[in-house]
Amino acid sequence: EDQVTQSPEALRLQEGESSSLNCSYTVSGLRGLFWYRQDPGKGPEFLFTLYSAGEEKEKERLKATLTKKESFLHITAPKPEDSATYLCAVEFSNYQLIWGAGTKLIIKP
Amino acid sequence: GAVVSQHPSWVICKSGTSVKIECRSLDFQATTMFWYRQFPKQSLMLMATSNEGSKATYEQGVEKDKFLINHASLTLSTLTVTSAHPEDSSFYICSAPSGAGEQYFGPGTRLTVT
Description:
A: 109 residues, five-stranded antiparallel beta sheet, globular, B: 53% strand
């Protein structure tokens, strides 16, 4: 069964404390893995797309990496404004996505 | 970047009435749009795929007669919740692929049925 699992469910960090979020998947025929950020009461905001194992992408304090079984979203020296729910999704056909449940990230000043 | 808008952003309706939600791609054309619903503290659940010029494709368990989808043009898809009930209260989000392997999401519509 195609499945996407994110861990941890929630993560509290102090400002400046780096960490990583995990997205593991069991999807046959991966076409792409997506990371989104969602703030409360808003639609998801696109962050990254990764297509093949070994690929890495960076944006400000965020860096996404991909292996054959999982993806990591590394956050370096986070700030309070990085607090949000981070969603991972895997594309398996025709742009349809399987979503993880998300990791709620809280950065305390 | 690409922008997807939704209207309204928030709606309250009485049980038994119908509500229409619009999803528009503002600076690109979308032959396909997706409709999701999201319950509090849960991830997005795909409801249906909206296809311009043809019938929508519904996910298993989603009633097509209750959630009517019309993809009227390359920039507009509408979701009508018919005979709404309190259990239909949720956050409804649409998205459109930009053609570059990315999807852009609307800001969402919060529906409350009383």
